[in-house]
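We were asked to recover a plausible sequence for a given structure. The inputs and outputs are reproduced exactly as logged, with field labels preserved.

PROBLEM: sequence recovery
POSITIONS: 93
GIVEN STRUCTURE:
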């Protein structure tokens, strides 16, 4: 059975793909000053109504500190594109 012109099946779209490389993010801990790479699953992104309430967080794999850093538009774009779990914060006002 042939496909209609301009349409592609999922199998055809992924036929040339050999493997998917997991996304990793470089990060640093302000407490112990170590630098490391984290998988998307190790990060959380919270998007608030303002730049002051938009941040990402993770636990330092070296010292165990809870780290929270501000996330501007570009960071939000990179983290969401890389599969980081996102929480949207809603204003109660």
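RECOVERED SEQUENCE:
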């Amino acid at each position: 059975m042939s496909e209609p012109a301009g349409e592609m099946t999922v199998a055809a779209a992924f036929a040339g793909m050999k493997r998917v490389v997991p996304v990793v993010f470089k990060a640093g801990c302000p407490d112990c000053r170590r630098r490391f790479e984290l998988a998307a699953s190790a990060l959380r992104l919270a998007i608030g109504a303002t730049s002051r309430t938009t941040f990402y967080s993770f636990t330092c794999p070296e010292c165990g500190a809870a780290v929270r850093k501000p996330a501007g538009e570009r960071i939000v774009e990179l983290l969401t594109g890389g599969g980081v779990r996102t929480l949207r914060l809603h204003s109660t006002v």
